[in-house]
Each structure stands twice: as structure tokens, then as C-alpha cells.
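Pair request: fold both.
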Amino acid sequence: MGNRVAAAIFVMIISFTFTGNLAWADEAGDYTDFLLFWGDKLPKLYDDAIEIETSYSGNQIEQFTKPTFGLDHENNQQIIDRGFQINNKTFAIRDNFHTPFSEQTINIGEVNSFEAKILADKGLKIQEFLFGIPSVSNAHLAEVGVEVWFNYNGEIQQVRVIQKSNVIDESTLVANHTKSKCTYSDIDEKCDSVKVSMMFLEPLKYKVMALKAIDFKNRYQITYLNEGVHIAGKSLNPMKTMMIPSGVRDEGLLKITQTSKYSPFWASEDKRIFEMNQFGSFKQINYDFERFTDSGNPYTRLHSGFAGIISYEQKRAAQLFDSSQFTSELPESFTHILPESRERISEEVKTEMLIQEKIGQKILDEYNVQTRWH
């Protein structure tokens, strides 16, 4: 549209120059007559070698050239063969938003490595590894994030760990960067391979993880790995403790310890269990029941001392006669295998029986035929 307006303005200027009148259309005819008059003598507004119009807008072009871990954003073709690697297992990213990914188990207290291969036309600025995401499309709620920052020369500038608790031992964190081929058949090393190694100290609440890359134009790509990783093992960090008011009179404050991370249950030193609700309040969920001691003699079953009387009388009876001394022991079990049964009827008898069966069947069929009178 802008080119057409520029052409119209240029034509008006040319008309004014040669006719001295801006209303050239009224004297020389319409625009078609003007082009026929000038023909090839009309000056060009732009060079033919320069392409002015394009089928894509600026936003669409930026969308096609943003970073990727697997597929080309323009034609959805696989351009990276191994977009992600965890320890010694490699995976191809076949969907830029979320890709099927079998759950991987990593152990607490062991060093594990994660590697991403990225194609960023405008240069890789930040590579992130996000862990503990509640669900796909919620990367901003990740519990742990490892960021690797680069300068314009492709060198690692800094490595950051974003975490609310001590999930990752930052002293074990190591980041490496190399240029690599996007596919085995490539000649040039156009992709960036970013690898981080670290040790987990405690489990995560959620398993979904994601890869995020940002280029120097601040365009980014987030790819979710649906099943993610499972952090297995007992936490190496000390459990949280808290002082709460005791429910026992004159006991004061009571120290309780969380049984496991993310668990609503807390325990005291004397094995009392408390449950914390969403408002941060606690209630005891296990109580020791001690029956009240009744007064008087235990003559009935309702008396608290009746069970003691029964136990005392059982001991007295055993002193008079103990039947356990006469209890015999059962002998060991045994099995007996019977020989295979043999046919009691010979083949000759079977053959004769079949012949007699056919004769009898024939007699019965003839007997059932109705007599017809003509």
C-alpha cells in the first residue's frame, strides 16, 4: 500500500512539473493514458534488484527465526537430531511446545548431567533448565531454574541457580558450552550445546521440566518435557522444625519436625503426630487412650480391672493342669503319585460296541417312521 501511495505522489509531481497544473487527470486523461504517454520513460521509484514487498510481516519473520531445540518454526521440519540429553540418554525434540518424554529417575546425592542443543540465528544469550513445574505452560512456577548466560562471543558469562530452598548443591554445579552440528549430515557447526552437571539434595514436588533459550533479540523458546524427571531418595537436607503451642496444660511450646518435604505431617520427640492445614494451624491426629481406673472389685466385664482378673485365673488354672505338655506334633507331610490308569476295554471291544450302536440307531429310526396309508 505504501508503494502505491509513493507512486501516486511521484506521478503528481511529474504532472505538475510538465503541465504546471496539479489536476493533470482532468487535462491529459486518466492514469492509464498517463502511463501510455510516458511508457518506459517513467523514472523508477526503486531498484528492481531490491525486493520491497514480502509475504510475511515483521512479527512472522521474527517468529520463524527464534531459537529452537528441534523443529524449524517456519516449515516444522526436524533440523536438530538430538535436542536434549540426560546423563547418557539422548532424546529428539519432535514438538517445539511439548514433546513426549519418558520419565527419567535421578538419585539424590549423585551428580547428574543435562545437555541441550539449540539453534539460535541471532546468537544464544541465555539457556535455562527448569525443574519442578506443576504442569505444561507453567514454566514461571518452576521450583528450580539453572541459567547459563553468554556474551556476544559465545562465551559463558555467568551461571545462576534460582531456587526457593536448597534443592541443588551449587558447589557441584558445572556448565560447559561447545559449538556442534545440528544433525549428523551437517558440515558446519551452527548449533550450541550447553551442558550442566549438578547434584540434587532433596526431591521436587512436581516432575515436569522444560528447556528455555533466549537470543540477543530477546526472542525465546520454551519446550516442555511432559513426564520430566523423578528425584528419588531421602533428602540430604535437615527437615524443617517449628515451635507450636502444646495442647497439654502447662507444657508450653512444643518442638515439631516435618516428616518429609511437602508433607503436611509433623512429629514431636515423643512421637506425637500433627497435621498442618492450609492456614498454617496444627492439630494432633494420634492420641494415646488410657482408660480410667474404676474403684471397687472387678466383678463384671465393665470394670477396668476385669482383664487382670482373667489373666490371674488363667495362670492359676495352668498350675493345676497344663494341657500344652500333651500337645502332639504333627508328622511331616508326604505325597503319593498314583500310576497312570490303563484302559480296561480293548480295541476289539470298542469296535464291536460302535457296530452295535449303529445297528440300534437304525432300528430306532425305522420305528419312528409313521405308517402312511394309500
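--- second member of the pair ---
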Amino acid sequence: MSSLSQKLTAMGLRSLDFNQAEAASLDALLSQLDTEFATLQQQRPNSKGDDLLLGLMTKTHLSALEQLQSTDSQSQAMNHLFVQQVGEEHAARFENQHHGYFILVTRLWMLVLGYLQIDLSYAADHAQSSATLLFADAPTGPSHSRAEQIRRRFMQAYYQGQAAARHNAKNTKQNKPYGSFINRLRDWFQRVFHR
């Protein structure tokens, strides 16, 4: 059995960019999720690891979303207070802990969605709605707003997962023996007659 961290690494986790604060939070989050994933694997030994991973990451994402939404009014009030007291420029330097956690979890979830080839439009819709939820006052689109930058980071994780899946599939295919003469003949007939 491989750990959640190992699976995410195989999905391209280390190719994503994380700042120092995110990297520290990532290590703590992976430690927690590794424990939960190991427990899930023990409870459901006949389940596929990828299904368990998708389920755990979806649950974690929904939990982070719920936490973000439940603290939204307090966060907005705190931000408004910072803007009044220190000005908008300095207030932007304060990091909302719930925002940071939600962004981190969403990026991991999007990585898994991409690796498992979940529909692009589904992922894009979630990236858009998550970015809009985080920065409702900043539009997404061809701008360089914070919402658009976060949306792009979410989609970057999705595309990284897709690229890792293609790379791993290619390597797996190359490492397998081609098969018997009968299999090669069958494959040839399928290619020729089912175009």
C-alpha cells in the first residue's frame, strides 16, 4: 500500500509551485491526510487506491469549503477593520488562514481530478467558482486580479495531474512486454478493420 503523499507525488505534486507558507502548511496537511488515507485503506482493503484518494480529497475539499463559508462574514469584517486601521495596501498583506487552507486543499483536489481524468469542464467550473468565492470583489477572466491568478493556479494543478497521468501511462505501456503473437495479431486486426 502506498501513502497518500506517494500517490500525490506520482501525480505531479512536486511540480507545483508553493511559497514558503504553503510548503509548511502542505507538509502538515499531507501528514494528516496520510494517516486518514492509511485508515481508509485498512477499512476498505478491496477498494482501489485511486478511488479512496479521490473520495478523501473530495471530502477534504468539501470540509475546507464549508469552513471557508462558515467563517466568511467574520473574515470580511476583519478585513474591513484592517483596511480602516492600516489602509488597503497594508491590509492586503494579512493572510486569511481559511483562504490559505482552502487554496491548498483545492489545488491538491484539482491535481487528483486531473490525474484521474475527471471532466475538464467540471474542473474548470470548480476552479472558477472557488476563485470567485475567495475573491468575490475581484473578477476572473483576462485580468490579473487575485481571483484570476488563483483560478489559474487551480487549473495548473489540474493540468499537471493530466500530464502526470499521460507520462505514467506511457511508461507503464513501455515497461510491459508486448504480448504474445495472438495478441499482436488481434490488435493489428482491430486497427485495420475498426478505423
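Observation on the second member. The mean pLDDT is 82.
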